[in-house]
Specification:
Family: Belongs to the [NiFe]/[NiFeSe] hydrogenase small subunit family.
Strand content: 5-15%
Keywords: 3Fe-4S, 4Fe-4S, Iron, Iron-sulfur, Metal-binding, Oxidoreductase, Periplasm, Signal
Protein name: Hydrogenase small subunit
Structural class: alpha/beta
Subunit structure: Heterodimer of a large and a small subunit.
Bound molecules: iron/sulfur cluster, FE3-S4 cluster
Shape: globular
CATH class of the largest domain: Alpha Beta
Subcellular location: Periplasm
CATH topology of the largest domain: Rossmann fold
């Protein structure tokens, strides 16, 4: 790969809902098409690929062979591990086999979304398929740097920022203990929340549809998990800076934290 070449990306989809990919398709800074046409070379992605079946499989394996050690592997979705991975299959192979084959051949793995990062909804109790995040599922079979961009879905800007960091500085960004980039996950929602002054003043919403809810008071008593959740939603917002859950009147449900389906629920207190 030379400086003028676009960075090859292989984007694998495992046990997921496609929300992360759909979110990324709506990236506006830059627009997703600019990202694809000017910055990255997307070698494989099931959602936007024109190819299907054997043609798509060939494209995947050709890219991995051609760019071994030089491509970025992006993974969306958890990996079912129970029964040797039998609960998730693509093209006759288990997702576990595919991940074991392809991820170690990349130069780095970016887990997009909470499913790929920590298991997400697929791994919620009782987790009959033994779904795990990529790093947990592969263990020592993944001797490559891993970056996690959790969120359900994550903000595309956090993914783009990670890639741009690599392209500009030749290295992945600084990470926290869960391998989330500090530039995006360095502060809690609570510490950046515009409703924080209401929290400090003891001004809480106690009922949906109330006057307090209308006035934008703090949602802590309705179940808000902002104090325990690290993400940059209040500052970057979604949909080109339009809004984010708390601005829309909904408590944060902790979607960028490990095991949030189990540890942050019930999501509502009232
Ligand atoms: Fe879907 Fe959420 Fe999993 Fe992304 S993290 S694939 S949005 S369930
Ligand atoms: Fe904190 Fe949530 Fe209240 Fe915002 S709405 S101040 S994040 S508890
Ligand atoms: Fe998720 Fe909470 Fe942001 S639910 S989208 S981390 S406000």
């Amino acid at each position: 790969i030379t400086g003028s070449q676009r960075l090859p990306v292989v984007y694998l989809s495992f046990a997921e809902c496609t929300g992360c990919t759909e979110g990324l398709l709506r990236s506006t800074y830059p627009w997703f098409d600019e990202l694809l046409l000017e910055t990255l070379s997307l070698e494989y992605n099931e959602t936007v690929f024109a190819a299907a079946g054997e043609q798509a499989e060939k494209a995947l394996h050709d890219a991995v062979t051609k760019y071994e050690g030089q491509f970025l592997c992006v993974v969306a979705g958890a990996i079912p591990t129970a029964g040797d991975g039998i609960y998730g299959m693509i093209a006759g192979k288990t997702m576990l086999e595919i991940a074991r084959d392809i991820c170690p051949k990349s130069m780095a793995v970016i887990c997009i979304g909470t499913c790929a990062s920590f298991g997400g909804v697929a791994a919620a109790a009782p987790n009959p398929t033994g779904a795990k995040g990529v790093e947990d599922a592969l263990g020592e079979a993944l001797p490559k740097p891993v970056v996690k961009i959790p969120g359900c879905p994550p903000n595309p800007i956090n993914f783009v920022g990670t890639v741009v960091n690599y392209l500009l500085f030749g290295k992945l960004p600084e990470l926290d203990a869960y391998k989330r980039p500090l530039f995006a996950y360095g502060k809690t929602i609570h510490d950046q929340c515009p409703r924080r002054s209401h929290f400090e003043n003891g001004e809480f919403v106690e009922e949906w549809g109330s006057k307090e809810a209308e006035m934008g008071w703090c949602l802590y008593n309705m179940g808000c998990k902002g104090p325990e959740t690290y993400n940059n939603c209040p500052t970057v917002k979604f949909n080109d800076g339009t809004s984010w859950p708390v601005q829309a009147g909904h408590p944060c449900i902790g979607c960028s934290e490990p095991d949030f389906w189990d540890t942050m629920s019930p999501f509502y207190k009232a």
